[in-house]
Amino acid sequence: MSLLFDAVLCLLLLAGALGVVATGAARAAVIAFIGYGLLLGLAWVRLAAVDVALTEIAIGSGISGVVLLRCVRALPATPKAPAPNPLLRPLAAMVSIAIAVALGAAVLALPEPAPSRAADVATALPATDLGNPVTGVLLVFRALDTLLEKVVLLLSLVGVWALSRDPACRGRPDPLSLEPAPAPSAFLARVLAPVGVLVGLYLLWAGADHPGGAFQSGAVLAAMGLLLVMGDQIRIPATQNRGLRLMLLAGPFGFLAVGFAGWATAGVFLGYPPGAEKAVIIAVEVAITLSIAVTLGLIVLGPPAGEERS
Amino acid sequence: MSALLVLAITAPLLGLVPLLLLGPRTGERAALGMLAVNVAITAGIAERVAQGGRALGYAVGGFAPPLGVGLRADGFAAAMMLMAALVLLFTGLFAMTGPGDMTRKVNARGSAGMPSTFFILLLSLACALNLAFLAQDLFTLYVALELLTFAAVPLVCLEGKAGQLSAALTYLLFALFGSVLYLLGVVLIYGLFGTLDIAHLAGLMAHGAGGWTAAAALALMSAGLMAKAALFPLHLWLPPAHSGAPPAASAVLSAVVIKAPLFLLVRLWSDLAPLPLAQVAGPVFAVCGAAAIVFCGVVALAQERLKLLIAYSTAAQIGYLCLMFPLAASSDGPWSALAWTGGTLHLVSHALSKAAMFLAAGLIAETMGHDRLSGLGGVGRLAPVSVAAFGLGGLSLMGLPPSGGFVAKVMLLTSALQQGSWWIATVVLVGGLLAGGYVLRVVVIALQHPDSDLPDVRECRWRALIALALAFGAMLVGFMPLSPLPFLEIGRPLTWESVLP
Amino acid sequence: MSLLASAFTLVFVAAGIGFFAAGTLGLVRLPGTLSRIHALTKADNVGLALIVLGLLPQAASVLDAAKMVAIWLLAQLASGAVAQVMAEAVMAEATLAEAKDAGDAAPPEESRP
Amino acid sequence: MTGVHLFGLAGAALVGCGVYGLLMAPGALGRILAFNILGGGVFLIFGVVARRGAGAGFGADPVPQALVITGIVVAFCATALAAALLVRLSAVDAEVARDGEKEKET
Amino acid sequence: MTADTLAPPLDLSALEPAMPILSEALMVVAIALPLALAFAALVPAVRRALPHVLALVPLPALIAALAVPRGLSVLVAPYPFRFTLALDAPGALLLGGASLLWMTAGAYAMAYLRQDPARPAFMVWWLLTMAGSFAVFLVADVASFYLAYALVSFSAYGLAAHDDTPQARRAGSLYLALTVLGEALLIAAFVMLASGATDANPQIRDAVALLPTSPWKTPILVLILLGFILKMGLFPLHVWMPLAHSVAPVPGSAVLSGVVVKAGVIGLLRFLPEGVPLPGWGAVLCGAGLFTAYYGVAVGLTQTHPKRALAYSTVSQMGVVAAVIGAGILNGTAGTFTIAAFYAANHMLLKGAMFLMVGVAMASSPRRALAAAAVAGLLGLSLAGLPLTGGAMAKYAIKLIVPEGMSGVLLTLSAAGSTLLMARYALLVARSGTEGTPPRGLAVPALILAGLALVLPFLLFEAVTGLPAAVAFAPSALQKGLWPVALGLGLAALLAWRAPRVPEVPAGDILNALGFLGTASRAIMGGAVAADAVLRRWPVAAFALLAIAVLLAATLTFAAVPL
């Protein structure tokens, strides 16, 4: 029964992917991509990776989808790039199928029993007082990756801002719509946003021991922020706003500060003070979540339009 | 455990705080300060490695690999780091707002410093490069490569012109294609061995374990790295991106950014892959490298714009390092060590000389208002120091003494001849001829009488001197003795033993 | 007891799936964006409600059950509001197209949601 | 054949789809989407590797799962940056075209 | 009669305790002084003072040539660089000759370029070329030789292209292209040569000693011969020389034709093993030299400008030098190299003086030009080996090496050709007068150099050959020396009386027949650019990326993985 479900899910995934790749129309392809992301989220649940499922749906499908939809809207209806020579199509198909087949064979041929670090993690996790092994890996054992991933996120925002017409990257990003928000949007923003913020904070809190964590929470918070912007409930902040920038920096540099503090408390960079691991980790997660939420939201909003003349 | 390794990654990031929170001038000064600190840190690492005669290591968070992530600096990595740090510092100085930029008296055409964003990206590059040189975990290296790409792409399009934006987009997309192939290799490796730590993997793979899946994983990772390094025939993005960017950006892109994937390619095949595999893969890279040297060299000769010429020269010069693979992977001790040293010295001297050339070209273009070769006659009179920097940098590309390029060329030639690789020796020589052609073409034009009236501007002298300093750096590398450098052998073969407690 | 709960779940979830299927069919087959939105929101909301209801006996704790109900409520809220926004957009486009002189210049709008 | 195998094959097929898209997509947006499909396939294989490594009381090896989370975020950053570049490029192109037309008129 | 017997003429042994250090310092300063001045010229004050002292810069080199004991070598930079200087007999001869030419031509150049706004740039190139030329004669290790050789070759471009006319640009570009080619040939040869030695940068002498047993003997010799012959301008690699030497300003031409080509000569002398018979190689070199000796004369005769005639004469004379060296290594004759260097030094001074006389004549009224032509003619006859001139001593010396027989006869006959060409040159000089009196700054250095060129061979003959100078005055020797010159003069008279109308062969002769090479290279570049445009298209590059991944995986799987 579950095998049948998995098979159907896989086929749907494949159909979704083919739909994205084969569709000529940009908007339809993006919509298909969002659907593909949701299906992928289901696949993650089936693979006992609820943390990943949440991340995939929130980031890979949700926020990415919003970014891509905005992109489609900004592009001219008729793309100027000529399609590759259609004669290449069979060749491309052959190459792709060959790669897929080889890869499939490689995956099936992976050794049994599978090598795994699960045992190592299980041994080391109790010392951190965390219940969720994925959070343990992300924030303790491979904290360097996570720290740098925060820098990547910040850097991609810098990259987006660098596309501003203003070399100093000042001012507010253009509003999502030039017209005032329709009443239902405003209503939704007013009602849903507080609940959503609560959900986001819950995800953060739960992440220590259950699926969830900074990224999933940050994505939900960012979505709530965007909802408020779309509902005309808050104004898009100017990028040079000092408070905003502090929020951007809180995550990566709060994390970095904790890393340095580890030298004093645990004798090693990115070590946690013995006994207070969980508290410090949650503090780090709060800072990270704040930054992620703000960064994701600003990435969706795009480059600032330059200093306003007031 | 050496804290310097951690500082090498984190110190450049600290410079981001003032850049994002304080005014542009303060931020710029802080950034330059951090770049100088970065040089000090990398020099410290190199000094420790040389003193101790063994690699430095650090287990981040106190968790040793394979569960945790390890950092490790051997001689090769330390040399690369120091080189990159120096280039970044000099480029940063070149890009700063200097005396005269405000008054605009010196430069009628305006040779202003770069915006704060440039310095944010420069510091991020410093972090990413140090990470790429130090990290020993294949996934951390993936993060480092992505960090590098995301810092490099906006550099291409800082001025927001249409050509730059489209070059940046192609660069980004192709780099992403490369990184996703790399990641595919990484997942296969993890599936096979359950670890991503290079030292552990080297031990696990030593006896051909993993079979064809491991081979496929290595191939995928290599292809991804080649795409990021723009190795022929995957160089589609390099000429427009490197020639379109502002000069300071071009300099770091050509000099150091593409060196990180090349470095990792070397790491992959000299430290991770077992020798029999490396001996099979070596010729494949060498063929690509040879094609790059010859083909891109010829295309560089045909260019009509100075910056494009230099960009194609970069695409060609990448090939030299790839010639090293089959030579270094041989079991012929001294000659493979010589090739290894030659390849590394080429990497270093190319970085210094190419940075000098791009900076000089930027100043030349700024002085003349364009970079069309046909209209550059007599620019030697307006921008003598820039032309000198270009020429001295070119000396290294041509492989003429005294320059790092010469020493590297002699070492590669010697190793190739001793191992009977006549075709590699021929390619090295032909590459030198082509480089001579395109470098001298520019120098000759610059020294000619002007065909029309020269504009009434002068080169920005202090910036030209920075370019000249880099060119002299490339020449200084030429005073290396012509024998394998023991420093580069420190910490090989790769192991955590005696590196981590 | 567990058998009864299972039967309850089976019935309600099956009904919910039926509603979902109907909604999807409507999405695919019905003409016009407005009617599609209508089919989608109405049928799916009922479908979701039935599924949640069906799953309630399976919940391990009252808190879990409450969470499921909360999910249903949130989905109600979101789909209702989004349907409204989309409908308004459709109407606005329609009026815009009319004003633009009855459709010879303007290309037919993409009508997929 | 188990579910894990199925997902492994699906991952491989998704990689194939992504590769096809990267080869044949006419424009940058298509390539961005194809990159995401390809990335999804790679991540799915990570998931399969993780699931296969279940043990020690965990339903899956947590290390690859954590890697995927980081990978998804990095892929998102790439997508966002590419999309922003694309938007800006088309805006600049439009401006250039407009300026060109204006010049023609005068 | 071996090389080491050529003792330094200036005996400084009185300074004994300080002698070694003094010698070392002299050699270093000889190279370092012009080099340092070239860089110091960046300072305006130095730039202004430089014209007054330019003629004195080669002085340390001259003293070094005169005083430094033969065979002394100085380790300038310690292990592992082993940057070494040494002075042997051939090096001393060429160094001394070169320093004299640089001094007189330096004084001449400052007068010649008095009005030229680009004089400072010329001086910088001048100093760099000078430093390189001295270094080439002095260095003893392989890497430094390559460095010095590159320095003299590339800096000479600045002298050749100074006038920046379209012809000069073309000549300069060709010169650079062939120089780069020569560098590539030589580096390959040097790397092969050095890799037999234990040191990474061996002494030239040690490396060459290993050459006869090297597994790469043939490629090394091919590359070395090609590389240095290119610089000496042997047919068919001479194409650049008439172009480059004739477009430079007169003093530039003088040092190019006098000194810079000798870098090729010293290269052959340094890198060919002396005293080891290399029959095949010797024959090839000798044959090529002899052919070039005649070829240069034949083409030179058609020239209508004295500088181009002189340039072709240089081609011809370098052919003679190559023939001598070839004959020497054919049999492994000891002393060959010193005599070849003696002949080359003789040519150096004569050719320098002859170029300078062209400039003198061009600044003279037609009547005064006749006087200049007379001096020029005398110099020419000396070059051709007219008995009782310095040149005759050099001719006598080389006949000690070249055996009687075919090559000997041909070599002797080539003197007739030289005479003919020199007569043509003197005629052209006589016709090149314009108006005015040549400034003293031109005439005096030219005449001093001419005097030195005519006299010095007498003084050096005994030291070089070990024979008393009187042997060259024996009646049989006089007669042997006279008849080719007489024959040449007779032919010249014949040609003057009834010259066949031969069109002037454009400088660079066969180069013009190689025009298709230019077309071909343009086509290759065009093709590469077009191919690049295809390769850089997205789908193509994306396919290539996947192809590399697949090919690499397949290669690894099938070639290496134990299944």
TrEMBL record, chain A:
It is a multi-pass membrane protein. It is found in: Cell membrane. The chain crosses the membrane at residues 44-69, 90-110, 185-208, 214-234, 246-273, 279-301. Belongs to the CPA3 antiporters (TC 2.A.63) subunit B family. Residues 187-302 form the Na+/H+ antiporter MnhB subunit-related protein domain. The keyword Coiled coil does not apply. Residues 11-76 form the MrpA C-terminal/MbhD domain. This is DUF4040 domain-containing protein. It comes from Xanthobacter autotrophicus. Pfam families: MbhD, MnhB. Its main location: membrane. InterPro entries: CPA3_antiporter_subunitB, MnhB, MrpA_C/MbhD. Keywords: Cell membrane, Membrane, Transmembrane, Transmembrane helix. Coiled coil: none annotated. GO terms for cellular component: plasma membrane.
UniProtKB/TrEMBL annotation, chain B:
GO terms for molecular function: NADH dehydrogenase (ubiquinone) activity. GO terms for biological process: ATP synthesis coupled electron transport. This is NADH-quinone oxidoreductase subunit J. It comes from the Bacteria. Belongs to the CPA3 antiporters (TC 2.A.63) subunit D family. Its main location: membrane. Residues 135-433 form the NADH:quinone oxidoreductase/Mrp antiporter transmembrane domain. It is a multi-pass membrane protein. It is found in: Cell membrane; Membrane. Keywords: Cell membrane, Membrane, Transmembrane, Transmembrane helix. It comes from Xanthobacter autotrophicus. The chain crosses the membrane at residues 75-96, 117-135, 141-158, 170-193, 213-236, 248-269, 281-302, 309-327, 347-367, 379-400, 420-444, 464-482.
TrEMBL record, chain D:
Signal peptide: none annotated. The chain crosses the membrane at residues 6-25, 32-54, 66-87. It is a multi-pass membrane protein. The keyword Cell membrane applies. Belongs to the CPA3 antiporters (TC 2.A.63) subunit C family. Keywords: Cell membrane, Membrane, Transmembrane, Transmembrane helix. One of its GO terms (cellular component) is plasma membrane. Its main location: membrane. It is found in: Cell membrane. It holds the Pfam family Oxidored_q2. This is NADH-ubiquinone oxidoreductase chain 4L.
TrEMBL record, chain E:
One of its GO terms (molecular function) is oxidoreductase activity. It holds the Pfam family Proton_antipo_M. It is a multi-pass membrane protein. It is found in: Cell membrane; Membrane. Keywords: Cell membrane, Membrane, Oxidoreductase, Transmembrane, Transmembrane helix, Ubiquinone. InterPro entries: ComplexI-like_HydComp, NADH_UbQ_OxRdtase, ND/Mrp_TM. One of its GO terms (cellular component) is plasma membrane. GO terms for biological process: ATP synthesis coupled electron transport. The chain crosses the membrane at residues 25-46, 53-72, 92-113, 120-140, 146-162, 174-198, 218-241, 253-272, 278-297, 309-330, 336-357, 369-388, 408-430, 442-461, 481-499, 511-534, 540-561. Residues 141-414 form the NADH:quinone oxidoreductase/Mrp antiporter transmembrane domain. PANTHER family: HYDROGENASE-4 COMPONENT F, NADH-UBIQUINONE_PLASTOQUINONE. This is NADH/ubiquinone/plastoquinone (Complex I). It comes from Xanthobacter autotrophicus.
